[in-house]
Predict the structure.
Amino acid sequence: MRKPMMAGNWKMNMTVAGALDLARQIYRLVGDTSVVEQLLCPPSVCLHPLKAVTDDMPFLLGAQNCHWQESGAFTGEISPPMLRGLADYVVLGHSERRQLFGETDETVNKKTHAVLAHQLNPIVCVGESLEQNERGETSSTITAQVRAALDGLNDEQVQSLVIAYEPIWAIGTGRAATAQTAGDICGLVRAILREMHGAAVAGATRVLYGGSAKPDNIGAIMEQSDIDGALIGGASLEAESYAEMVRITARVYSG
Ligand code: PEP
């Protein structure tokens, strides 16, 4: 059985003090549930202090991006070896990186290989724009993005990564995909995994939904058999709403 994941993408929010405070608040609210994997993805400067404080809390930590090279003249970048020991996961190909910082399918693929080579787990984001959605190009866009991101990976590598389906039109807009649509597209992602790597790998790899997920809709989203969790932006910045999403997910999985 795939363990559900609630991944909070804090984006460029929070100082170190604010990040520590938010993590402590979430811990007070949720406690030690082992049913749901709780992943916090703060700005990279917060990873080290958070790691120290959350070592005895049930959180995993994720970075929001990294470079594919190990070191070199890449001012402002962070490499996979730098994240070893600080992060468990690295979010790659988020639509904000694709739209605002020139991330392409090719760089996402290079980063995915680099992250895996350093024993970190990628969370690869894919998603169609509003225009692609309206032109009926959702399936072809998602298929192309998943295939490109996973190009050259072996079965074992694919099982250790997570794919997040995040329709761009749903991110930060308050307009989430319906649970049914989100479930269908996550099902499509799983079918692509099956085609590329076989049924066992497809059955073991987690697929998340992201895009205006919140306490009100997370229950229906998590009822979908092909959805294994959520990548959460806005609602992860408030301890109570994130905690509530963890609790609801735990209920869906325990009952
Ligand atoms: C995200 O940034 O990955 C995201 C899903 O944001 P939000 O939940 O705010 O739509």
In short: Strands lie at 5-9, 37-41, 59-63, 89-92, 121-126, 162-165, 206-210, 229-232. Residues 5-254 form a domain with the TIM Barrel fold (CATH 3.20.20.70).
